Amino acid sequence: MTSDPLPARMLNEWVYCPRLAMLEHLHGEWAESSDTEDGHRVHRRVDIEGGDVPAPAEVEGTEVARSLWLTSEDEGITARLDLLEGIPGTSTVRPVDYKRGSGPAEGEGVYEPERVQVCAQALVLRSHGYVVNEGAVWFAGSRRRVSIALTDDLVARTRAAVVEMRAAMERGVLPPPLVDSPKCNGCSLAPICLPDEVALLATGGAAADAAKDPDEILTRRLVPARDDGLPLHVLTQGARVELDGSELVVRLKGAELGRAPLPQTSQVGLYGNIQVTTQAMRAIVESGAPVALLSRSGWFVGLVGGLPHGNVFVRQAQLRAADNPARALAIARGIVVSKLRNQRTLLRRNADGDAEEALARLDRAIKAAGQATTVDSLRGCEGDGAAGYFGAFAQMLRPRDGTLAFDFVTRNRRPPTDPANALLSFAYAMLTREWTHVIHGVGLDPYVGFLHAPRQGRPALALDLMEEFRPILADSTAIGMVNTGEIGPEHFVRRGPSCNLTDTGRRRVLEAWERRLDTLVTHPVFGYRISYRRVFEVQTRLLARHLLGEIPDLPPFLVR
What we know:
This protein is α/β, with parallel strands linked by helices. It has three domains: 6-171, Lambda Exonuclease, Chain A; 230-304, CATH 3.100.10.20; 312-517, Four Helix Bundle (Hemerythrin (Met), subunit A), CATH 1.20.120. It has 18 helices and 18 strands. It has helices spanning 8-16, 18-25, 34-42, 112-127, 152-171, 190-193, 195-202, 205-208, 278-286, 312-322, 325-350, 356-370, 375-391, 419-442, 460-466, 470-484, 503-517, 532-547, and strands at residues 6-7, 64-72, 77-86, 93-99, 134-139, 144-149, 230-234, 240-244, 247-252, 255-261, 265-271, 275-276, 291-294, 300-304, 492-495, 498-501, 520-522, 529-531. The longest helix is centred in the middle third of the chain and has 26 residues, at 325-350. The chain is elongated, with a radius of gyration of 28 Å. The two termini are 47 Å apart.
């Protein structure tokens, strides 16, 4: 792996921020932003291969070639040159790199990372026999060209960067995040890197700051509050999803039911008998959005997406932790304690009647779970707490018309036998789908968990991480819909002993579910306000940071 030549662009990133370079090159992380999109626009012309490339002895000073890819085994560098120019009146050439910004007004007019990148390109050219004494950077923002002299010091710095980055790759450990660096502002990988969050948790600052005003814990926001994209749910049986330009079009027997712009679509959910054209499926996958396949009643079947995330290192760490009983127990214990505490909070807030016995039972379960010495005993603590919680669940359901349709007795499933359980089962299926999607996108394996035992077809890690969110998202959504009259007996259908939502009922639940996921909530550890959907990603990335040894524990997500 480490003997492969390093891209010149990655040397730029290494000099700018070693952690950024390793996230991109070693872990395969990438995220688009307005800046990267603007960079693609600037490079449009030079990304198209063109021009003749003469042999070194035939350079006449009039040649121009675009998008030229060369590799030097001796230097250990590979580079795609935006522009290669012959210098008039000489037999020398120079590489020209295109940048979207304006560059610094003072000093040499080019930052060190850009100078190293151009020098790396020059070294590759020299290894192929070309005479190169200078390079240049074209800044699209200021529309100016800045020359770069290939001094001995610059060559030495570039070769040192190759050695440093190669050594870091040999170690296979991410460099620590920059501390309070302005470089993180606007970095498209900041929500993946989580520099401030990792720094806080790695030093134990989260515990020390627990008593502070949440707004004072982190002084800047690097994680966006919400996602730019929105999911597309298709429930109409027999519908067909097609591609029309950059839009997804849903049709039924030729009649258009709706449209969704593909660039703003975060995922597509297909419920039951829904068709997708090959062109639409390919466009969705190429955009990075997954296609979730569900039964008509909402049972999660699986995801269709591109190739698995390239970050094999985090999956190796996940497998090692899952095979280590002590580590698996520590992670599972934190999840169960958090779930039980969130169940207690929801019950305390919403119970209409005497719930003291259930609250006391949850307290005992929380204490026992915190002291559990095996995963099996931990599951027993979880089950005991759940029995107390669902034993008092009916006290939180207060339908406006007083109907007995939501007379909850006990939790049941496969299939649910009453409207309240049918509502909960559908909400849990939606929660499983969301977590599986996020886990897959971060690079972890959804099927390797710590609390739930491995089983064919079971996304154990998704079931693990969703546990503490069952009460505060799925249960609270169901309770709110019943108590406000948003859903009623007419939205359910019975077939024998089983009970399911009607198509109209599912649409209502999905609308309420999406509103809930889009709700801004204060993160209990970091203090900033983000949507629940964004919380899923942050928590999953923190688990990855924990598995890789960057932070001591996975922080819980607790509501007050």
